[in-house]
Amino acid sequence: MSLTLKSRLAALFLLGSVFAVCAHATGITGAGSSFVYPVLSKWSVVFNQKTGHQINYQSIGSGGGIAQIKAGTVDFGASDAPLSAEDLGKFGLGQFPVVIGGIVPVVNVEGIGAGKLRLSGPVLAEIFMGKIKTWNDPALAQLNPGLKLPASAIFVVHRSDGSGTSYNFTNYLGKVSGEWQKSIGFGTSVPWPVGVGGKGNEGVSAYVKQIKNSIGYVEYAYALQNKMAYTQMENATGRFLQPSNAAFAAAAATADWAQAKDFNLIMTNAPGASAWPITATTWAIMYKTPKNAAQSKVTFAFFKWAFEHGQPQALALDYVPLPDTLVKQIEAYWHTQFKS
Amino acid sequence: MNAGAATPTQDRGRQRRRALSSMLGWIASGLAFVLLAFALLDILHTVFVRGFAALNLQLFLTPTSGIAGGLLNAIEGSALITFGALLLAVPIGVLGGIYVSEFGREYFARAVRFIADVLVGVPSIVFGLFGYLTMVTALGWHFSLAAGCITLAMMIAPYILRTTELALRGVSGELREAGYALGASQANLVLRVLLRECAPRVLTGILLAMAISMGETAPLIYTVNWSNYYWNGHLTHESVAYLTYVIWSFINEPFSSAHALAYAAALLITLFVLLITLLARLSLSRLEVRRSS
Question: Which residues in chain A are contacts of B232 at CB distance < 8 A?
């Protein structure tokens, strides 16, 4: 009978592909922010080679990460927006920063290369509010005396999905523009007055690359990898800076972490002289009294290893490792806040 | 010609009108075909060009390492999940199909058929949510192979049930009568006459269900999570890797190594689904050959 032969062959083929490499070590699962996915998965590979423990992280977005840790389906969640003290207390959770990255405005204007255009916070806010409508607007011309700016209309691109990038970007615009703060506010998704939305950093990058005379905002790694024209920004001290790992690190170093309860601090518009104004971090969120002590212990060991030895991997992927002072504060926080 | 018939001129006019509308119809359906074929060819072109460029031996020998490395863990996981789902869904689907077609009372059969049709139409992400709420959280299995397999099985079992039932119903009544006339019991008739006759159709249903489960993403995001490692033998509490996750997630990363993996995964899935569809076609055409000879 040809059928049974065929189905037997099919079953055999499937069975043949079913094989398991058994490694008996603790498996840790995490979920959340897509921003940290590349570095977390790179760290977990190296950590696995060193210790044999497996860290599995699924990139489902910050909102998903918070939902999963609250549901207790993962050992840690990761979010680009911090949880409030109230939320943390209600669920018995603690949070700490994991890694630092920068957000950069990107433009597609003929003749303007990467790092050429200068922007200030208030001007950026007015562009994203639709108040500044053309590239040759006096406010832009004043910031860029040497640049030839076209008379064409500015095309704004923002995120269509809820995102930590938007959270930090709008938080910054709110800090530098009272009008933005009053009429739009900040959050993972806000009522954008103008422009089109792209899904994810990839979506925004694709739109800005396709649409002439457009402006958007993406994580630094996307601007670099896609070879996009990022801009300079005026920071809190009035200096114009190029985005760089050093400028992101300066923002993290000058932020006042010691005063921030549960590290609930947004690093935008940081006061340092060489601090990039739109710098962001991602928080890992864990239970203070773990459901599974052994797994919680490995999770802490993983983050401790990443903070102390994972800097090369982070830098290779355009992230900035946490400054030493902050790592010490986090380790102290672990000892006082978490039971394990 | 009788009195009511059209004159030759009227006839010619009608013929011309018919020729014209027929031509318009052909053009419209030809355009529809070109549009559909173009969409398919464009997808295949993109996937093949970018996928083949990303192919290398490492993909089949090593697991993913962060956003680079190989795909062996995902290939293994996809095979496991599909195999597990079929293991659960094939017996349920085939036996259910036989029952509804041959044994069930009419009202009960109608109810089962209705439920199966509704289930076939439910979006796959709803199955994912159901699996998440029941197995991942309520039963506390966490993200796991078992949750993924059962969720996919729930999705494809109704499909297999319906194709099995339709296949059995397609067998001519004469064959049944002949079987009974020779003294076969009902069980004997089903197993040795009817199923044998329509086996290629049942197999086709199973193969297409396999293709569906191979290509699903949404139910697995909710139930299986993702893993950078090989399966370690646990049915619950252990995430598993799968190919469609690589496509869904890695294409959004900024790095070209991640994009290459996503395209390679897309190519593997596409080739596999094409292969299964061709196998299904082949088994059906062999049925036709057997019929006509």
Answer: 20-24, 27
